[in-house]
């Protein structure tokens, strides 16, 4: 009798173990079927690349990614400042008058109830890794990551002794240091070279695990200061660099549209007010170009490693810049405005088996990234997500969304078809200044139509639509 009992116990135990192993196997297979995601953020990268049309910038690796991916020709950030833009994108929620304001925004403080994209993926079996600058604050949304890493050293990352001494221990918000550096050093001397190497090492480790990964790489350049190894400066001839066509501030444009580009003014050699000398302006443009080519090379190393490890066919690659950047357009530098140059962003996605080097002219905004990646991963969005998936565009369909909304401080912009309409509003949402550009006839944004009598009906319609689309909580205080 005892033998029979023990046999039954052993049989039941074996069944239970078999069931457990089968369930684990099914779980592992399910996880393995989910696509990996290589999430590449590039600080201050504007869509001035060959894959976006004619450009002096040499970016062969980004152009190669575009040739295998889908290029969004009309992607717009929801707020043109790094910390706020990243928190908005990663939470899938819009900026409001009181939420996601500036570079120092923290997702945990501004929108703690929103489940971030990396946390959702982590909760659904993904290994999540943050390398470099993903959020502005390294401890923001900390629960979302299995590991985080940032290169050690002063954030300005100078390599030449005289620049290190001049900079001392200054941070980006403090005066001191030069605006660019041309140093004869290796690629790994600067942060982005180290970030690329760390990303490649992580790919090698992730290769062997039986679960999907979300590997986020946040590259620092072309953020100021424009520091890049000499060989990337040498790719360009200074005498071929021109100032932008719209190097002017028209009188019809509201004064509120312009700023003193304080971010650049913090650096030695930059006048504290007034226009830059033409030669200085061209040297800055040269430095920006060099930095883009430098970061392009680092991203190329990571993409080559992804292919070498046979992970390419299982991995979605998405590359984005956190906002646009002015290189003298409207005599502005940096971001912090609602002209198109500050709002329009590079956005390229490569989905194995689906993308093949096409360009979309449909309007997308950065809060659309979250729901798109979630759909591609076969998951469900949290109720807090406000964006709209652009997977139908990836599948070759035309989007039925022809608008986006962006803001910076009091300025709120509705982008609709070819029209760019901006209002500066007070706490009650009442406009005190406005501008309207029609990009079909005025792509350089030199002729403000908002105050012209013939456009008043259009302005009235756009003003109503702006308020309908800027988000239900736009005027709500936190």
TrEMBL record:
Residues 1-19 form the signal peptide. GO terms for cellular component: cytoplasm. Gene3D superfamilies: Alkaline Phosphatase, subunit A (3.40.720.10). The keyword Transport does not apply. Residues 35-378 form the Sulfatase N-terminal domain. CDD domains: iduronate-2-sulfatase. Keywords: Calcium, Hydrolase, Metal-binding, Signal. GO terms for molecular function: iduronate-2-sulfatase activity; metal ion binding. Its cofactor is Ca(2+). PANTHER family: IDURONATE 2-SULFATASE. Belongs to the sulfatase family. This is Choline-sulfatase.
